[in-house]
Amino acid sequence: MGLTQDAPAAPARTSAFPEAAPAFVAHDRVAPDLTRPDVSVCIVNWNCVDLLRKCLASIYARSQGVSFETIVVDNGSSDGAADMVANEFAHVTLIRNRANLGFSAGNNQAASVADGRYLFFLNNDTELPGGTLKEFVTFADRNPGVGMVGPKLRGADGNLQISYRTKPTLAAMLHRVSLLRWTGLFRRAYYRYRRDTFEPEGTRSVEVLMGAAVFLPRSVFEQSGKWDERYRFGGEDLDLSTQVGRRHEVVYFSNIEILHYGRVSSRANVGFSAPNVAIGYVHYFRKAGVGPAALFVYKLLVTVDTPLQIAAKVTQATQRLVRGKTYKAKKSWLAARGLWHFMNRELIRFWRA
């Protein structure tokens, strides 16, 4: 296939994901239909009008080198985002939802009307350099056995962001429970998941790509079951990477670099994002084969721990404010708000997940 796998394949386990194919086998795809665009760029938006405007402007500011279309699904924004797209980017296909259907459902809506032979799912808080789509298409055409490709992500501060990870384990998530963190029992598992495995340079097979920007053939997307709509926000990139990875390589390609503001939209809508991330992990673990007893213990620990984390974040915010660290204090308050919303409005859904 022309690619070297730098990491061993993950061991098989009982799960709800489809069974793996015998091997990663390169195959010839059908010759491209020149009457259709090469790429369909699919963007889901909710209440991020300014970020979305920058994203769309970057796509069209410079030549992308291939034919493409852009589809925006607006999930019932109240900040005028849908009208902005209609007025300023009339060539973009716009789908208006009356309510927030979630990230996965919105992406599936976009894919359902897309005409491109490749689908590029892109966050609204990103910006593309010129020629980005051509680089993706060239790489994918040369490596037909690859199922999904993700780029290098760089923040607005100039720092590289973690652009791929290993699959999370229940042990890794238990380290986030403050009742257990002090013991250090799960520190190694957590840091392996979050940081230790990321190497920014090179091309390699990986387990999980960050959902900010993923590029894949339409046929692979459909064969893999599309985005699982039980994930409203958070965990869906774990799920899609796992499903695609059962039959195809999931590849990180550092030659392509994209600007990703990162967590700007999730922090702006923390009451929605924080609870759904917690629920998304439960969906993922259940689908990956974690037993009901282990999930019960995990849910119980998270439930008991949440009030403690709220108190800790409020205290931290107050201390930072007193010390004049306004920006960091704001981040602590946002974290406390997200936890409060989770505890008061979404705890039942968390337990039902």
From TrEMBL:
Organism: Fimbriiglobus ruber
Tree of life domain: Bacteria
InterPro entries assigned: Glyco_trans_2-like, Nucleotide-diphossugar_trans
Keyword Endoplasmic reticulum tagged: no
Keywords: Transferase
One annotated GO molecular function: transferase activity
The protein's name: Glycosyl transferase, family 2
Cited SUPFAM superfamilies: Nucleotide-diphospho-sugar transferases
Domain Glycosyltransferase 2-like: 40-177
Coiled coil regions in record: none
